[in-house]
Amino acid sequence: MPMSILKIYPAEGTWVVRAGGSVIGESNRALELVQRDWPFVIYFPREDVAGAVLDPSPRKLECDDRGTGVFFHVSSPEGLIENAAYSITGPSDAAKQLEGYMAFDAGKVTVERV
């Protein structure tokens, strides 16, 4: 099986993540992951995301390319958004830079450069 190529870059500018209209994270130290022909993903340093809105999920992340991790539910003004965030806790060699960072499901919350 061919090995997937991960490309990780510093994400230019300041990025925010909003859940239900409320800003739950903001960073000018985010990373951009480019993988295969998938849309890019922005990873936020964990300390730049409001920990109070995160609830651990029993769902686990297992990815051949990035490694293993955990999911989180996100509390928003409209209620709980299930499995909206994830963090790589056991990164593959190619994804070591992502350890200590968190990404979000762009279909469930809004991630944008401001």
What can you tell me about this protein's structure?
This protein has strands spanning 6-10, 15-19, 22-27, 31-35, 41-45, 54-63, 67-76, 79-91, 101-104, 110-113. The mean pLDDT is 94. It has a single domain, classed as Metal Binding Protein, Guanine Nucleotide Exchange Factor, Chain A (Beta Complex). Strands 1-4-5-9-8-7-6 form a seven-stranded antiparallel beta sheet, with no helix packed on it. A three-stranded antiparallel beta sheet has the order 3-2-10, with no helix packed on it. It has no helices and ten strands. The protein has 114 residues and is mainly β.
In N-to-C order, the SSE pattern is: EEEEEEEEEE
Shape: globular
Helix content: under 10%
Q: Assign the CATH class.
A: Mainly Beta
Which helices and strands appear, and what pairs or packs with what?
Layout: E1 6-10, E2 15-19, E3 22-27, E4 31-35, E5 41-45, E6 54-63, E7 67-76, E8 79-91, E9 101-104, E10 110-113
Antiparallel strand pairs: 1-4, 2-3, 2-10, 4-5, 5-9, 6-7, 7-8, 8-9
Organism: Roseinatronobacter ekhonensis
InterPro entries: DUF427 (IPR007361), DUF427_sf (IPR038694)
Pfam families: NTP_transf_9
Characteristics:
single chain, 114 residues, mainly beta, Metal Binding Protein, Guanine Nucleotide Exchange Factor, Chain A, 7-stranded antiparallel sheet, 3-stranded antiparallel sheet, 0% helix, 59% strand, globular, DUF427_sf, DUF427, DUF427 domain-containing protein
Give a quick summary of the entry.
This protein is mainly β and 114 residues long. It has strands at 6-10, 15-19, 22-27, 31-35, 41-45, 54-63, 67-76, 79-91, 101-104, 110-113.
